Structure of CGNR zinc finger domain-containing protein:
Amino acid sequence: MHWTDVDGLRMPVLLAGHPGLELCNTWAGWGHPPGPHREWLRGYDHLATWAGHASLLDVPAVRRLRAAARREPAEAELALAAARSFRAALRTLLLDRGDAGAFRAVAAQARRAAAAARLTADADGVVSWTLSPDNPLDLPLLACARSAADLLCTPARAHVRACPGADCGWLFLDPRGRRRWCTMAVCGNRAKVRAYANRH
C-alpha cells in the first residue's frame, strides 16, 4: 500500500530516505498524463500535514499552519502552488543535474529558506536553526527547500533513483546500487505479475 493515514488525511508512505525526495513522491505517475488522482497535495491541509509527516515540522507548527490557512485561504493556495512548482523543479534537477531552469527554480527557494533561517536556543540552551519566513504559510516549502539544498550539496545526490514501475516514478536513495523499485511490495510485485502474464 502506497499510503497511510495521518491526522485523518491520506499521505504517501515515506520510503525515499530523504524529505526532498519524499516531496517529489507526493505526485504519482511522473511522465504520465496529469490527473487529480495523481496529486497527494490536494489542499494546503495536505501540504502542512505532509511536512509534519516527513519530520520537517513539529505537530504544533502543523496545527498553527492549518488554522492560518483557514483564515487566509487565498494565501494558502499561493503557498500550495509554489510548493507544487518547487516539487516539479526539484525532481527534474535531481534526475538531470544539467537542467539550468530547474536549478534556478530550486536555488531561488533555497535562498529564501536561507534568508529566513535564524539560529535559536531553547530554555535548556539547545541550539538549532529555525525558519521565520515573511509569510508563515510558506514554512512547509522553505523547510523542504532547505533540506533539499542540503541533499544537493552532498555525494548522496548521485544515489537518487526513480522507480521504473508503471504509473509511478517515485524517487529514492540507493547508496548500494541494489534497489530497483520504490517498494518491492507494490511496484516490484506488479512488474512480476505482468511478466508472468506475458510469459503465459
Summary: The first strand starts at residue 3 and ends at 6. Strands lie at 3-6, 9-12, 117-121, 127-131, 160-162, 171-173. The radius of gyration is 18 Å.
